Amino acid sequence: MGRDAGNAQTNTLSIGMNAARVTNTDRTTLYFNAVKASALINGTKSGTAQAVRGGAGYNRNLAKRLFFSGFNDWEYDRFQALDLRVTLGGGLGFHVWKSERGQLNLPFGLAWSHSTFDPAPRPKFTRNAAEAYWGDDLTFKLSSRTSLTQSYRMFNNLSDTGEYRANFDLGASTQLFKQVSWNVSFSDRYLSNPASGRKTNDLLYTTGVGINFAR
Fold first, then answer.
1. Fewer CB atoms near the end CB (10 Å): N or C, the chain?
2. SS (H, E, C) 102-125
3. Is 79 helix (H, G, I), strand (E, B) or coil?
4. Which of 36, 45, 50 is nearest to 9 (CA)?
5. 60-91: per-residue pLDDT in tens?
6. Is the pLDDT of residue 213 over 70?
7. All residues at 6 or more sequence positions from 184 whose CB lies less than 8 Å from its CB, including other chains
């Protein structure tokens, strides 16, 4: 959380949570990220950012390099006029590289998304789409204390061909103490056909102290 005073006063609150359960054959993940920011300029207060993203994923090994992947994502983004997007998907993936320092996976498959937009003063509308997705997941230890995570997904619309959206997330975590870390993250959402008057890109940047509850 941060605040700045002067000609303008700004307040920012960001929350992030990641959890994972990993065995020799499968991996279950949960995530939640939220950011809310406002600015007070000349007595007028307005929001400068407001987004909530969360979901769950499950991977299960089918062979040495092949795995099944399923996920469920939920998203709200005020500045794309997105009231709610729910995405359900599943497919396969390849373990391209794995070592003590990290791993690289390439997932792909099919998904269904339901999106509700509220671009006031224009009326609300919804979009339902079948999608084909592909991307990558990378984890890498830069040093004994600093690790990097990166995830990319391209969703090609199969219901309205030519339309697409892309998710890109990049984060770095540096261990300060046994259970305390300093985290930095970039999160970009691109939509080729946004609501009228809205931009195609929405980039969020957050930084702050994290607590590790791992045993």
1. C
2. EEEEEEEEEEEEEEEECCCCCCCE
3. helix
4. 45
5. 999 999 999 999 999 999 889 999 999 999 99
6. yes
7. 171, 172, 173, 205, 206, 207
Burial class (CB in 10 A: 0-12, 13-18, 19+), 34: middle
What are the pLDDT digits (tens) for 164-176?
999 999 999 999 9
Nearest CA to 32 out of 197, 187, 191, 190 is that of: 187
pLDDT in tens, 111-159: 999 999 999 999 999 999 999 999 999 999 999 999 999 999 999 999 9
How many residues are there in the chain?
A: 215
Tokens at 162, concatenated: 């030519």
CA atoms of 112 and 88, how far apart (whole Å): 5
Q: Answer whether 109's CB lies under 8 Å from 91's CB.
A: yes
- Nearest residue to 21 (alpha-carbon basis) of 55, 59, 54, 53: 59
Q: How far is residue 188's CA from residue 203's CA, in Å, rounded to a whole number?
A: 4
What are 177's two structure tokens? 């103490």
Report the C-alpha gap between 77 and 169 in whole angstroms: 16
CA distances from 128 to 16, 38, 61, 117 (A): 28, 32, 31, 12
β pairing state of 66-77 and 26-41: unpaired
Instruction: For residue 196, give the 3-state DSSP assignment.
Output: coil
